Amino acid sequence: MTISDSPKAWLAWSSGKDSAWALHTVRRSGVVRVVALLTTVNRTYQRVAMHAVREGLLEMQARQTGLPLVKVPIPSPCPNAVYEQAIGEAMERARGEGVRHMVFGDLFLEDIRAYREKQLAACGMTPVFPLWGRETRQLAEQMIAAGLSAHLVSVDPRKLDRSFVARRFDRDLLDALPPGVDPCGENGEFHTFASAGPMFSNPIPVEPGEIVERDGFVFADLRAAPQPSESPEI
Predict the structure, then answer these.
(1) For 194, which of 20, 93, 115, 128 could close a Cys bridge (C-beta 3.0–4.6 Å)?
(2) Residue 233 pLDDT greater than 90, yes or no
(3) Above 70 in pLDDT, residue 102?
């Protein structure tokens, strides 16, 4: 079976390293063919839910993957019933486009996986977890070795010191993480924004902006880095 014959899928795109690596992984395996990225967006602030990444950066990511972006606007705060209704409507659209699979970058949280399986079963969709069960230090090092570049855009200061926000996701960071902090942040210690890697056609130039604390989390307001203008011809 060629990739073009693989079942069509949407991918749950958080803007972070795990969803980016999940895209890279399924593209290499061909188990499904990702035809769109699905992202929940805070409709009040026009930012990616949880990660608080600017919508403009999200759109830049999608362009570099070569995939259309399906935005699901949700309020802030968002009651679970409202969230589930919004996702259910998105899944109805997906089914109308011949999509029957959803790809997730989850790593090992059994309760999250069970929740996704239950919700998608009710929608007639099948979840795919290409990174499931991977040892997270090895996975993190594999991402970095393959050229994935990311910044920490959100930190839970109850689990990781706030000084880590805005840092690059690299080997120095992995070595600096205190014991008990998952190298991929799977327990909610941190969230990232992926700006380069084999899943993108070109890097996305970014730079950390203002650091703010809101709703118990510390955020780095990542923004597009200005590019040097072309030198005038002599």
Answers:
(1) 20
(2) no
(3) yes
What's the rounded mean pLDDT across residues 79-84? 95
| Average pLDDT estimate for 189-196 | 98
Enclosing domain of residue 72: 3-128
The verdict on 190 and 215 lying in the same domain is: yes
Task: State pLDDT tens for residues 129-166.
Answer: 999 999 999 999 999 999 999 999 999 999 999 999 99
**Residue 232 binned pLDDT confidence (cut-offs 50, 70, 90):** very low
Q: Given 79, 111, 128, which residue is the final one in a domain?
A: 128
Helix then strand then coil, % of the chain, to nearest 5: 35, 25, 45
Q: Which of 83, 106, 128 is the last residue of a domain?
A: 128
The secondary structure of the chain as a DSSP string is --GGGSPEEEEE--SSHHHHHHHHHHHHH-SSEEEEEEEEEETTTTEETTT--BHHHHHHHHHHHT--EEEEEE-SS--HHHHHHHHHHHHHHHHHTT--EEE----S-HHHHHHHHHHHHHHT-EEE-TTTT--HHHHHHHHHHTT-EEEEEEE-TTTS-GGGTT-B-SHHHHHHSPTTS-TT-TTSSEEEEEEESTTSSS---EE---EEEETTEEEE--EEPPPPPPPPP-
Residue 171 CA to chain centroid, in angstroms? Answer: 20
Q: Judge contact between 109 and 186, C-beta under 8 A.
A: yes
